[in-house]
Amino acid sequence: MQITGDNNEGKAELDNFILPESKYPVIVTTSKLLSTGVDVQTCKLIVLDKRIESMTEFKQIIGRGTRINEAYGKAYFTIMDFRKATELFADPDFDGEPVQIYEPKGDEPVVPPDEPDEPGDDEPVSGGGVQIGPQGKGQRRTKYYVGDVEVSLVAERVQYYGKDGKLITESLTDYTKSAVNNNYASLNDFLNRWTSAEKKQAIVEELENEGILLDALAEEVGKDFDAFDLVAHVAFGQKPLTRRERAENVKKRNYFAKYEGKARTVLEALLEKYADEGLTNLEDPKVLKLSPFDNYGTPIEIIQAFGGKAKYEQAIKELEHDLYQVA
């Protein structure tokens, strides 16, 4: 599927490409439409076939593959580079060393050979005088050794590139706080902007365009928090709530009491989707094509259960408002 700014058919399929539960399209070609602000959780292969001159753009493009989704077997991704961008922008301090580099020659197959076997549980991996190895049966917690002395990780330095391509050496949380405070003077400012936005995903994209690495922030703060709680906690010291906690608060406030039948069932299922996966599915009407909503009828039939499209959209807005209501 071609997904570019001048291809309306392709743009209409963008949400299907993003949703992990949607099977099609499988392969997408694009120019820059997927470079930023798109969370493609199950993207396993990124093919580069254009000249890239910006470190920031390169990081944004390959960033589409860095999400892990164990439920759908996504634990790594591969870059197929026809333009040597990975050589031009190689940054071991930022990326770490690649697991495998394969450069086929002549008639050699394009697909690389199987990766070498990983060391056994009892074999620590060594490098640069430091040995690293898993600890305990069935566990993947890491031990660190300097010589034969076991040590603990006390602190780590994080470096990453900002939207201007410059290397940032302050902590990820400090950079996030500074970037957010440049746009929002207080928590109330951010809350007002969040609650008034037609689509919350638009604010997420704005934050990413400011160079805020929400995926990396989630790794540091907690994967069960959505973008609102990550930003409010890091930038303004607000106690974060997990998506599940926010969903349970909605239930306690008896939000669903004014709905009945199919409409109530659909809203309850949407709330579960939010708790499990976040805002993207909640705001996208195409989610009604997926399980479990396909058991309740066609998208048109589901929307009619609310009294029409306008009332369905109003119900979603009210649900989002309740999700972020101050307890």
Description:
With 327 residues, this protein is an alpha+beta fold. Helices cover 39% and strands 9% of the residues. The chain has 15 helices and eight strands. The chain has helices at residues 8-12, 14-18, 55-62, 85-88, 92-95, 172-181, 187-196, 200-209, 214-221, 227-236, 243-252, 261-277, 279-283, 299-304, 309-323; strands at 45-48, 78-81, 125-127, 130-134, 142-146, 149-151, 160-161, 167-168. The protein has a four-stranded antiparallel β-sheet, with no helix packed on it. A two-stranded parallel ribbon has the order 1-2. The chain has a two-stranded antiparallel sheet with strand order 7-8. Strand 4 (130-134) and strand 5 (142-146) form a beta hairpin. Helix 6 (172-181) packs across helix 10 (227-236) and helix 7 runs antiparallel to helix 10. It is globular and about 65 Å long. Residues 116-141 have low confidence and may be disordered.
